[in-house]
């Protein structure tokens, strides 16, 4: 009637070895090599900025504490299983009936409380340190507005509006230039998450949140919207492009220019303004002042289209203008049912928006 | 009454026609039949929602997969989460409560048998209504079908501007119905425990399962109104021009999150505590020792219940609360670790010095202990607010809560299946198939959810229907999908086992595990009236006293 595993005592150890080493073998087997590769661009344990760096240090402490607890408790459990396993031949004997012990209960109540106390201290210190940071002089101020499914990025002090790519200077040496972000939403809740720079902060409509980053290494940092926001939540990627201070100044000067009057794409320009493109898009220096879609003034300076849905190449641009739904099903830009000629002309015009 | 024959599947039903059997189920007010109906229905929803999970995993098996369209994927994860919590977890605990509580406290039925039936039918129709959304929700305008707003349905994605058609209405109304069922069932369990215990069964002599059911049902009464209230407010927003969560008109999206999680976090413990309850019965029997520190276990459970209503905002560390607010909810969350740790240590203490029989219920309990330990520790990591800013809404969180709800809750429930199935059916589940189920499920579970922790470390957000190659996620997702297939096969084996063993299982007898609580003193399956004569108890382990008259428990308690 009962299922006895006496003949099979190795099985039990196999459970433990298999189930709980599996986690380490598979997990680390794939994470560790990734640590050295370029493609782990969103690894939270490879921070290149504050506050991600400080978060990593805190989390390593917590990981160590948890690992020690795991080893002790799992060790006790394995010991109990091996030592007190039912052995053939002693079926009839009941072990001594022990009902409990107040001293032991007290010990394993007080010990966790002490550990928890330490964790509370560490946690509250880090929270206060990160959340209550005040912008120093020279900090870059930007406003990020979440939309379904793209990011509007504004620099009110610099007079720049762009989309999906946040440009900030690196803090190099003594010249500290953190970026302080105001986060808002135009529709539903989103969340700004670039793992190598900082943790998440939500963008919530009718509310303004704040966060800051202080990257130390120039480069491109990838992130996603981290709060489910509807159909194309998966294709709402954010890029943070970190420049050296000089490059950043140059980028700012370029972006501050209005769009050049297109001389070599006059038909495209005409087609653009004759269709409804202007209802949603702004091109500074022209009559296109729509606010629903991304600002296109310097479209060609961006690396991707449609919030990271595709690289910004002429071919992709053409596909996108012809039928955005094919690249990003459900996105709010409609298929304008244009002829091939119109699409070619408009793409030619857009390519002048450098 | 005809119901008597229907209560004995596989034993005497052959002369009763199918129509009569079904009619018997519809009109029954018997706690055992309703309990089994709860569990059976929940298992069907488990399979449906499980198949959705498998589809989700298949969509994510490689980068830029096109198996599922974005909206189909979003509906699947919404329906998967909603079903698993409200149509699988809640009815399973209601089923266990219904079936076991009267038997364990030595009474003949629940306090309110008709209300009991009403609760079941509310749950069933709520569930059917939720799935009817696939047909009914598009409306005349052909908008989206099933709900696609995520199981916590954050405002304002649920506002009419962003959720056209009726999918969100189906989500609201079906859960309101199911919540009515859960509420009356909770009142019933509480009333039964307080009013119908057999002679001698003082509160502190109740089996731990009964205590834990008491706590969990109080928590249902405490937590569910938060959700129901918020859902009614959302309906008012959608149809009566209210602006509770309407951010365009000055409403607050964050208030929805507070309402939802003031329900949602206790809900996690509402599900976990009945799994703890199964462990607290099974581990002592298979270690041949009484539970270590019974009063402490009761106290720790009550503490978990109390603390769990003060931790809800730890789901909201990224919404921009002040540093003081964040610190408060970090502290309250850490506090939960203390009574939870006490429970783990007490189960360990029960096993220590015992004679551990590694039969199927115990195997599931042991896997539960390891997995719940890890789930608890990842929970501690998530309570460290700065770490949480990185981990929340990533696949780390997905892995963490599946560790609690699959690795712990479901394993606890599976342990319960193997343990009480012989009582309910009269026959044992086949141990060979059971072992296959156990091993395939353990392997599949770890393949899937161990790897997903690391996907979270590598920055993979949850609820994305696709991802690009080159982020270090490809292999992890592939392994996770393979694991999901293992789990699917394991559940299939369980289903086969449950169906087959009704007729072909080994006869169980009254007390196949040599256990100590009252349900094992009556026949398997128990007669309609449960006990021919009202039992009287003198200790927490009445059957121990009976089997060991020379050394009874009541001498020591």
Descriptive account of the structure:
- The complex is a heterodimer of chains A (354) and B (557).
- Chain A is an alpha+beta fold.
- In chain A, 39% of the residues lie in helices and 18% in strands.
- Among the domains of chain A are: 140-256, Cupredoxins -  blue copper proteins (Immunoglobulin-like, Sandwich); 266-350, Sandwich (Immunoglobulin-like).
- Chain A contains nine helices and 13 strands.
- In chain A, the strands form three sheets. In chain A, strands 1-9-6-2-3-4 form a six-stranded mixed β-sheet. In chain A, strands 5-11-10-7-8 form a five-stranded mixed β-sheet.
- The termini of chain A are far apart.
- Chain B has a single domain (3-555), classed as Cytochrome C Oxidase, Chain A.
- The longest helix of chain B is centred in the N-terminal third of the chain and has 35 residues, at 70-104.
- Chain B is globular.
- Chain B starts with a helix and ends in a 10-residue tail after the last helix.
- Chains A and B meet through helix 1, helix 2, helix 3 and strand 10 of A and helix 4, helix 8, helix 9, helix 10 and helix 11 of B.
In short:
The complex is a heterodimer of chains A (354) and B (557). Chain A is an alpha+beta fold and 354 residues long.
Task: Name its key features.
heterodimer; A: alpha+beta; Immunoglobulin-like; six-stranded mixed sheet; 9 helices; 18% strand; disordered N terminus; B: 557 residues; mainly alpha; Cytochrome C Oxidase, Chain A
